[in-house]
Amino acid sequence: MSIQLDGYDLTIEKVVKVARDNERISIHPEAIERIKKCRNLLEDKIKKKEIMYGVNTGIGELSEVVLTQEQVEEYQRYLIYSHAAGYGKPLPVEVVRAAILSRINCHCHGHSGLRPVVVETLKEMLNKGVTPVVCEKGSVGACGDLSPMAQMALVPMGEGEAFYKGERLPGKEAMEKAGIPTIVYEARDGLATINGSNVIAGMGALEIYDAERWIKNAEIVAAMTLEVLNANMKAYDERLHKVRGYPGAVEASENIRRITEGSELLTQKGKKVQDCYSLRSTPQVMGSARDALKWARSMLEIELNGAADNPTFFPDEDLVLTGANFQGTPMAFALELLGMAITTVCVLSERRTNRLMNPHLSMGLPAFLTKGAGMFSGLMLSQYTAGALVCENRILSHPAATGSIPAAADQEDFVSMGMTTALKTRNIIDNAHAVLGIEFMAGAQAIDFRKPIKPSKGIQTAYNVIRKYVEKLEEDRPLFDDINKLKEVVESNEILEAVEKAVGQLK
Question: What is the pLDDT of residue 61?
Fold first, then answer.
């Protein structure tokens, strides 16, 4: 069963199904009719020789240059050539697929003026697995992601390069092997294909999906550390968080209460009246991250279902408006906040890991979670790695969205730099999985030292998954394999899925 696009109900979950799971798509018949109607308007205006930006004019600073009728169609090809000016390694296939999906859904509104054959060709590329090779750097996130989108737009012409069935091929060869006819861009087609911040939208959608699962993993590992440190769970009382009112904090505290329910570790003597902030403030901090994620999701889903183009055509009113609906700032702000939120929760994780290592803070656990401190250093250096990753994430959290550098001879004198935001947020999330993996490793080691006292059902389940991949540290060994394995386990959501099966769906 395919996902049908109509311009209005594309969710982040649907993006994931198409981008990662290769779900097929179709286009709603009403959307096709809207695209045709808009194209008829454009062709009528071309016949009347009306001046329209990017149709019969140049773009950017060259928008005052009017093209002859003979130049109009050839111009679209040169436009794609000139804008394919990126740099760097190829973006992941899933990101490019998400970007194409986002662009198709934009066209479904019928405000872009391109021919239906362009949209159908992009649809077939998704359905048959032809993914353009797109350099990851070069977009400033205004006038859309022009450079990467232009590389994408080369392949429908039978140019550029594409991945197909695991091979990197010339674009024409990939299209031929997939049985997709190539096209020649006519008036407006080329600019309509590239004139949106769709790489930011596609990458951002995937990042939000991953971050929402990451925050649940962060709550599980927090619960594990709370148990082995015999935390004072009054700080997690529902009444405490409801009286303040932040929904994220209510959800985070509820999740942690559910995970830790029935823990013998939390019934031991010697609780502190008040724990340190890294234990006591977890609901407030994780709750803030949860609330930030909700806003970021809302912004990205607006973009996924919006008509982001320039110019924008209104067939019912016989109207063409030029503006800046390609501008990436709304998504840039959302993804900056996402990166900041994840980084902040990582700081909490590293501080908890430090407490597990420090015999002055760990409620009786041995130094660095080893039985032979002195001869052995135990997990000491894993905290160094967590610290290094947190430091890197702090640097990556510096906003790119305030970093406009004017382009196009100052015609485009403010740009969003949203692509830089999306790229660094992806790196933040990658590091963040490793930070949690390190705390999971330390938490499992601490559970071993607390035996025979039993953790909760939820934490025992998490422990069992960890021990499938990483053995208890009896004496020192290289830890890099353990850290890398657990990073992948966290990223795969295997721990999350197992815990949710044991205790129920987390908020």
Answer: 63
Among residues 128, 147, 131, 163, the alpha carbon closest in space to that of 198 is found at 147
Q: Which is it for strands 167-170 and 161-164: parallel, antiparallel or unpaired?
A: antiparallel
Instruction: Name the helix (H) or strand (E) containing 442.
Output: helix 418-450
pLDDT of 72 over the 90 cut: no
What would the pLDDT profile of 258-299 be if each residue is shown by its tens digit?
A: 999 999 999 999 899 999 999 999 999 999 999 999 999 999
Domain boundaries, the chain: 3-196, 204-503
Please tell me what DSSP assigns to residue 246.
-
Asked if 451 contacts 233 with a C-beta cutoff of 8 angstroms, the reply is: no
**66: helix, strand or coil:** strand
What the block records as the tokens of 234 is 């009054």
pLDDT of residue 73 exceeding 90 = no
CATH level 2 (architecture), domain 3-196: Orthogonal Bundle (1.10)
Q: To the nearest whole number, what is the mean pLDDT of the chain?
A: 94
Could you identify the residue written with the tokens 């020649």?
Answer: 184
Helix (H) or strand (E) holding 143: none
Q: What is the pLDDT of residues 30-59, one digit of tens each?
A: 999 999 999 999 888 888 878 777 777 776
pLDDT at residue 487, rounded to an integer: 98
Q: Is 314 exposed, middle or buried (0-12, 13-18, 19+ CB in 10 A)?
A: middle
Query: Is domain 204-503 annotated with CATH 3.30.9.10?
Result: no
Torsion over CA of 304, 305, 306 and 311, rounded to 10 degrees? 80
- pLDDT value of position 74: 82
Q: How far apart are the first and last CA of the chain?
A: 29
Closest by Cα among 94, 106, 97, 113 to 27: 106
Secondary structure (3-state) at 164: strand
Print the SS3 string covering 338-400: HHHHHHHHHHHHHHHHHHHHCCCCCCCCCHHHCCCECCECCCHHHHHHHHHHHHHHHHHCCCC
Return the percent helix, strand and coil in the chain, to nearest 5: 60, 5, 30
Residues involved in catalysis: 53
Residue 447: which of 267, 227, 219, 258 has the closest Cα? 227
Query: How far is Cα of residue 10 from the mean position of the Cα atoms in its chain?
Result: 16
204-503 matches 3-196 in CATH topology: no
- What distance separates the 2 farthest-apart alpha carbons in the chain? 86
Q: State the alpha helices, DSSP H only, in 48-145.
A: 69-83, 93-107, 116-128
- In 85-134, the DSSP E strands lie at 87-90, 131-132
Is the CB of residue 312 less than 8 Å from the CB of residue 38? no
CB atoms within 10 A of CB 271: 16
The model's pLDDT over 200-226, given as tens digits with 9 standing for 90+, comes to 999 999 999 999 999 999 999 999 999
Provide the token pair at 216. 């649940």
**To the nearest whole percent, how much of the chain has pLDDT over 70?**
99
